[in-house]
Amino acid sequence: MNCRFADFRCKEVINICDGCRLGYVGDVECQLPEGQMTALIVPGPCRFLGLFGRDSDYIIPWCCIRRIGEDIILVEGSISSWRVMRKRRGLF
To answer: What would the pLDDT profile of 10-58 be if each residue is shown by its tens digit?
Structure first.
């Protein structure tokens, strides 16, 4: 299967354990010497109408991906272990 990074950005990520919709792929993590994809990064949901930034991101290891379809990616595992806090930006 040939797939470009732009193709991943159009796919929604769904956890098959509880049916939770995590969002759309925002980035991928790769190992440069081997060229292997190691994880998908999904931005967290918006807080209060998007005015207060976003919640924690999800970094989903490649081993947790069960199926990649034409429009969705099915993953399996614990959402709490995938959560990574966003870095806070200073005002000045």
So the answer is: 889 999 988 889 989 988 888 888 878 889 988 877 766 656 666 788 8
Q: In sequence order, what DSSP letters do the residues of the chain get, joined into one string?
A: ----HHHHHTPEEEETTT--EEEE--EEEEETTTTEEEEEEEPPPBSGGGTT-B--EEEEEGGGEEEE-SSEEEE-S-HHHHEEPPPPPP--
Cβ pair 71, 11 in contact under 8 A: yes
> Contact 73/14 with Cβ under 8 angstroms?
yes
Q: Which residues of 44-61 are buried (b: 16+ CB within 10 A; e: fewer)?
A: beeeeeeeeeeeebbbbe
Q: Residue 41: name the closest of 70, 67, 3, 8 by CA.
A: 8
What is the rounded distance in angstroms from the CA atom of residue 79 to the CA atom of residue 23? 12
